[in-house]
Amino acid sequence: MLQIVENAKNHLSNIAIKSNELSYTYQDLLTVSQKYATGLLADSKNLMGARVAFMVDPGFDYVAIQWAIWQAGGVAVPLCISYPLPSLRYVLEDTGAAIVIATPNYEEVLKPLIEEKTFRFVSNEELSKAQAAELPEISRDQNAMILYTSGTTSLPKGVVTTHKNLEAQISTLVSFWEWSAKDHTLCILPLHHVHGIVNVISCALWSGAAVEFMEKFSPAAVFDVFMKNELNVFMAVPTIYYKLITYWEQQNEETKVEIFKNLSAFRLMVSGSAALPVSVMEKWKTISGHTLLERYGMTEIGMGVSNPYNGERKAGYIGQPLPGVSVILVDEDYKEVEMGQPGEILIKGDNVFKEYWGKPEATQKAFTPDGWFKTGDVAVYEEGYLKILGRDSIDIIKSGGYKISALEIEEVLRKHPEIKDCAVIGVPNEEWGELVAAAVVLNNQNINTDELNDWIRDLMPAYKTPRKYLVIEDLPRNAMGKVTKNDLKTLFK
Q1: How large is the average pLDDT for residues 90-106?
Q2: Using CA atoms, how far apart are residues 169 and 213, in angstroms rounded to an integer?
Q3: Which residues does the UniProt record annotate as the domain AMP-binding enzyme C-terminal (predicted)?
Q4: Residue 30 is part of which domain span?
């Protein structure tokens, strides 16, 4: 039994999805997804864990196809709609996808792969001609989805979650963030990533709430939806909040007052997928009246830590472990550190993924012998709240015997009036091990780095301040808005 599908039966007449200026009820979603599932099954009774990749625009068909794959006993493999052909080939070959579904607008992109006939290709139009029939019983222990990690250090790994894992991830957030059938949210996040699939779409649909999709992102279009007074939940990444703030600053005072009135009526606003600059959090509060709820998660765990829904949300902190999620901080020997000392975050719980697809050695390496998942993120407890110091491999700079948090330096740099954005990395150095280096995006291209250095040394210890600066037009980012620091390292070379 798929709980998300069972829950939908309690809300048949509610609007489930709004996309392309059309509204679809939960009854529509159940009817169409069951029809699609029958089409996927063809002559078989159960897909028995076959991987089914799909390349579909965000909207009703995306959700109906994902639900259809699950109901037919398949494993959903969402394809990033902006991937080039080599990346698509990698995912299809790595998963050994038996079936690929695409809407007509993506058939041309996939054409070279379709012609190789290594999988059964089905269009969504073909699925819509099927007649709904009896569907198999699905176990919670079956594989449900494979999402690919960003692969900054090697080829991307396929993260396998079971239905039990997904249900734990979704139900925990629904309870902790107090989702209900009265909620209405907007999804503007990529749908090959846990943030969009789990936190936005699945939490809403588990609860009987409505999810609205946008054809193309633009700050103006988002504010147009805000001003309809229908939404009450919004989730985005820091980059999107930054773009919305920039748009807001261009509006007249009358419009700003109207925006504040509408946004302050929201129930919940969340930021995630990358560190939220305190400056962005503070600015958004002046615009909306909301202290953004920051949380911590990753493809392998869904969400593990969150600031409270009710209670103090601390700027610069990710919060406390979610119910049912165990968290410890450990040293390099995987021994638990004392309170107040930094350590790598280890996590246990039903939310934690099953395995990396086809990579038993990588899976084994990702866990301690007693089953704790190694996140690779370093954090510290301060006054009961977890604060991320960075990823051990990227954000923790080891210079002159010190361990320095790149995120801390970035937060200070962003306070400079001429710095629009920045990213800090460690670059190899024979004498120091690593030198602190900062890439900065400026409002004024004529900034003097000597003056900048004097300024930052008044705000933090000299050993933490950048020794190298690079002025660039924009920071390299992935689809979720995270700065790709390995790309930055090549620029410093």
Answers
A1: 96
A2: 22
A3: 408-482
A4: 3-194
